Amino acid sequence: METPNVPEPDSQASTTESTSDVTEPLDRYECSPCGYVYEPLKGDSVGGILARTPFKDLPVTWRCPVCGARKNVFANIGPAGNDAGFKANYGYGFGVNTMTSSQKSLLIFGGLALAGIVMLSFYGLN
């Protein structure tokens, strides 16, 4: 006698709901007075905060480990590796708006170094 083919309960739906918080990127927060960046993936060893602790879950008594500022002076700067700048401006320019901040810094300071080398090379034209 064959058993009817009854579909099993959708176990993926409950798994998706429980892992949505885990796979969601953890936003970094920057201290306005001193520039310290709280990175949830690293946590805060000075304050005893474990890695992967979101900023919103930090205790009210937590302070900036550099300057001692409270949580309310921190600004959300998004997850690590995001493009620097406003998303509305990504379509403008020569493709520079889609670069990360470290790529922009490399481009700027690399261009300055190249310009300095070109200027110094003029001394060899005597």
Automatic annotation (TrEMBL):
Polar residues compositional bias, start-end: 11-22
TM segment ranges: 106-125
Domain Rubredoxin-like: 26-77
Keyword Transmembrane helix: yes
SUPFAM superfamilies xrefs: Rubredoxin-like (SSF57802)
InterPro entries in the record: Rubredoxin-like_dom, Rubredoxin_dom, Rubredoxin_ET, Rubredoxin_Fe_BS
CDD domains: rubredoxin
Keyword Protease: no
Region of interest: Disordered: 1-27
GO MF term (any one): iron ion binding
Tree of life domain: Bacteria
PROSITE patterns reported in the protein's UniProt record: RUBREDOXIN (PS00202), RUBREDOXIN_LIKE (PS50903)
Pfam families: Rubredoxin
Keywords annotated in UniProt: Electron transport, Iron, Membrane, Metal-binding, Transmembrane, Transmembrane helix, Transport
Cofactor(s) recorded in Swiss-Prot or TrEMBL: Fe(3+)
GO biological process, one term: alkane catabolic process
Family of the protein in this entry: Belongs to the rubredoxin family.
Full protein name: Rubredoxin
Organism: Zarconia navalis LEGE 11467
Taxonomy of the source species: Bacteria, Bacillati, Cyanobacteriota, Cyanophyceae, Oscillatoriophycideae
